[in-house]
Design a protein that fits this description.
The chain has 186 residues and is mostly helical. It has helices spanning 5-13, 17-43, 54-57, 74-90, 92-103, 108-120, 127-143, 148-158, 164-176, 180-183.
Length: 186
Amino acid sequence: MGTDYAHSVLGALEKVDKWADALPVLLPDATALLRDALDLMRELGGASDREDLSYIHQPSISDHEQNNDFNEWTELIVMTRDAWLTATDADPEMAKIEVKRWLGIHYPVFRRLAFFAAAQRPDLIDEGLALGSLLSDDHYWLWTSMTRRETIRLIASLSTRISPEQSERLQAAINNGPRPRCSAMI
């Protein structure tokens, strides 16, 4: 049975003034810790390139009432997100680089983080990169339930800033529906 130790410790750290200053520096480490946790889950059969159940354990990357903090490992998602949000002001270039790093890590939670970032800070994340990531892997990430909440928020954000050609590409992908291998994931 789990405890809420990680959540309470990091919750207490959030109240420390210097914590916000430290977060941007901790961003690469937070990403690495989250990846290590997912790598361990993979070894135990609980994660893969296409599935990690983060969408169940942490339904929203952003703060949301559905996030219930039942699993301590989800605090790594929160810490990574908060470190990235703080870095967007302290070191925007590092924040951009980290999103590109997330897109290279093959677990859905990192795709969710990247989609969250692109929707939250469209001034930092190029719409071409965001759209390309959404439609990559034969449109898998557009349709999978693993990224659904962040996908919808990203589409809403992109709808106001993509070019007519990019809009046509997105609309065609939506109109064509999921590919056969994706339909089982909906």
